[in-house]
Amino acid sequence: MAEEVLSQNEIDALLSAISTGEMDADDLKKEETEKKVKVYDFKRALRFSKDQIRSLSRIHENFARLLTTYFSAQLRTYVQISIASVDQIPYEEFIRSIPKKTILNIFSVAPLDGRIVLETNPNIAYAMLDRMLGGRGESINKIEGLTEIETKIMSQMFEKAIDSLQEAWSSIVEIDPQLEEFEENPQFLQMVSPNETVVVISLNTEIGESSGMINICIPHVVLEPIIPKLSVHYWMQTETKEREPGEYEALTRNIQKAEVEMTAVLGETTITIEQFLHLAQKDVIHLNQSIAEPLALNVDDEKKFLVQPGKKKNKVAVQILEEYKGGDFDDE
């Protein structure tokens, strides 16, 4: 157990309090012998470190950006999705926190065990549905359940949306998410035991003038095999991983095969629109380039060499005289 070191001022104040009777030495001894107890709630077992939670937050920030792009393209309206919170709570608490009527998409994430849930607030889900059916994207307060056609439209949309999760997780593990169930009542959803720890990623979602939450519920059993990969140490190792020698050679070969456009500039000039409109056959345009000066050879619109014009095997050609070293500052 770590010992606390007192400063000289604190020692003097303590001795003064004992000598004046403000503090009893026997009470101090009694306090030291008492065991310090910390309350621990087994129903809210914290099975993920702060470091791992931060890694999950980073992964799903990328997922939120990908989801924003996907829904913007599908719905053709303003969509903004961002992370609100990442919490670890018992599964029972997650079920109690969502509406009694909501949109639940249950996915398997092979090769990982277990399933994850993508819960979409009805306020957002019905705005999406209205937009998909040609409406303005207004939220509809539906008391009755979804029709078969509406259910099919919603499930297909979220089935394609979950592909973004596959891309966001690719830095940690390659998964193959598959839609297994589509539910509206959370009471019918029993994936894990009520006290099982789950990670809930809440996403603030705005679609047009409607707003709500999209929640991703990931049980501990799903993340258990990849928990070591959620540490900062793993991310640093991944980022600093050295390339294989063969990769540099392949990269060099591919760069050498890249094609670039080269243009020899004979000269430039400036004329008015009126002069341009009255140009006729046999008119002569005076350039700013002297015939005695070398030409500029541009590589992808950047001046790289000084050349002189000529012919080679009856074809117009240029001969490189020297590398251009004027730089952008000389051009200005």
UniProtKB/TrEMBL annotation:
Report keywords, A-Z. Answer: Bacterial flagellum, Cell membrane, Cell projection, Chemotaxis, Cilium, Flagellar rotation, Flagellum, Membrane
Primary subcellular site in the record, as a coarse category: other
Q: Per the UniProt entry, what is one GO biological process?
A: bacterial-type flagellum-dependent swarming motility
Q: Which topology term describes how it sits in the membrane?
A: Peripheral membrane protein
Q: Which GO terms describe its cellular component?
A: bacterial-type flagellum basal body; plasma membrane
Localization terms from the record: Bacterial flagellum basal body; Cell membrane
Pfam families in the cross-refs? FliM (PF02154), FliMN_C (PF01052)
InterPro entries, from UniProt? CheC-like_sf, Flag_FliM, FliN-like_C, SpoA-like_sf
Record domain Flagellar motor switch protein FliN-like C-terminal: where: 254-322
| Signal peptide start and end residues | none
Give the family this protein belongs to, as stated in its UniProt record: Belongs to the FliM family.
Per its UniProt record, what PANTHER family does this chain match? FLAGELLAR MOTOR SWITCH PROTEIN FLIM, YOP PROTEINS TRANSLOCATION PROTEIN Q
Protein name as catalogued: Flagellar motor switch protein FliM
